[in-house]
């Protein structure tokens, strides 16, 4: 199985083959996702929410990201690993953006970075791409701007916002990003953005007309007990299955029915006799 690269992604768009992406944050989950045949694994800063229990993605640090990206890379052999640049790792200056993007590629085996924003991050995207680091853009609902947006809601609904999103998408492409995540954007607008760009779009809550789709793995596996947004499809309710397993374990230990003989080790009667 050949490793997925920027060239593969470009080829898939050219052939009209949908690009599949999921998040993962650790070795076991990455291995599961990679073995299933996913094209791209995003180590999202959503790890702040689902792995670390923060209220938003804002507190996530570069060191926390690197820790998880390393684990994901160890579990991945085919998929392309994309590392999410956390809040304030690329906004302060182009220099800091370069330094932090560089850390991902030097300290892990991720092969691309992702960052949020449009026209305001044009110079950052350009510089990171010029350094030889592939960049994934992210527009629409950009969780690192939650306070600016006034909450997590659908973006680009009125004409001005839609025009801004379209212009930002063209900026991201012109700056050199090789694909673009569209989060919580009306489906018809995501379709228009997709038709207006050469690079593939990857949607999350952005309808079926994007070139690919991404979901947070905890959401699609039903691992996370929070109420999921409308765009999430729960393919399985693992939370329910896991809770049942945990309760059964507690019950069996309590009533001494676990471990059984099949889970236990014996020893010779002779040796045992000497001990008594
Ligand atoms: O952090 C994340 O998981 C993301 C995806 C939702 C696109 O940015
Ligand atoms: Na993110």
UniProtKB/TrEMBL annotation:
Active-site residues (renumbered): 183 (proton acceptor)
InterPro entries for this protein: Pantoate_hydroxy_MeTrfase (IPR003700), Pyrv/PenolPyrv_kinase-like_dom (IPR015813), Pyrv_kinase-like_dom_sf (IPR040442)
Keywords: Cytoplasm, Magnesium, Metal-binding, Methyltransferase, Pantothenate biosynthesis, Transferase
Cofactor(s) listed: Mg(2+)
Amino acids binding 3-methyl-2-oxobutanoate: 45-46, 84, 114
Residues annotated as binding Mg(2+): 45, 84, 116
A Gene Ontology biological process term: methylation
UniProt pathway annotation: Cofactor biosynthesis; (R)-pantothenate biosynthesis; (R)-pantoate from 3-methyl-2-oxobutanoate: step 1/2
Top-rank taxon, per record: Bacteria
NCBIfam families per record: panB, PRK00311.1
PANTHER family membership: 3-METHYL-2-OXOBUTANOATE HYDROXYMETHYLTRANSFERASE
Role noted for this protein: Catalyzes the reversible reaction in which hydroxymethyl group from 5,10-methylenetetrahydrofolate is transferred onto alpha-ketoisovalerate to form ketopantoate.
Name used for this protein in its record: 3-methyl-2-oxobutanoate hydroxymethyltransferase
């Amino acid at each position: 199985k050949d490793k997925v690269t920027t060239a593969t992604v470009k080829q898939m768009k050219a052939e009209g083959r949908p690009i599949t992406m999921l998040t993962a944050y650790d070795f076991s989950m990455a291995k599961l996702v990679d073995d299933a045949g996913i094209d791209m694994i995003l180590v999202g800063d959503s790890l702040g929410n689902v792995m670390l229990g923060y209220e938003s993605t804002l507190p996530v640090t570069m060191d926390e990201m690197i820790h998880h990206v390393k684990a994901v890379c160890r579990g991945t052999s085919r998929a392309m690993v994309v590392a999410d640049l956390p809040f304030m790792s690329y906004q302060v200056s182009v220099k800091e953006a370069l330094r932090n993007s560089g850390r991902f590629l030097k300290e892990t085996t991720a092969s691309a970075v992702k960052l949020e924003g449009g026209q305001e991050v044009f110079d950052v995207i350009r510089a990171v791409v010029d350094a030889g680091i592939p960049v994934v853009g992210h527009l629409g609902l950009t969780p690192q701007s939650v306070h600016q947006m006034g909450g997590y809601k659908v973006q680009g609904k009125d004409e001005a916002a839609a025009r801004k999103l379209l212009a930002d998408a063209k900026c991201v492409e012109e700056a050199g990003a090789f694909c673009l995540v569209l989060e919580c954007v009306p489906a018809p607008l995501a379709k228009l953005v997709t038709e207006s760009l050469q690079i593939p779009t990857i949607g999350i809550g952005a309808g079926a007309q994007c070139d690919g789709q991404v979901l947070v793995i905890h959401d699609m596996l039903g691992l996370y007990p929070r109420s999921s947004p409308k765009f999430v499809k729960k393919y399985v309710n693992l939370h329910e299955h896991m809770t049942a397993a945990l309760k059964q374990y507690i019950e069996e230990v309590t009533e001494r029915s676990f471990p059984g003989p099949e889970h236990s080790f014996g020893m010779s009667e002779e040796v045992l006799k000497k001990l008594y």
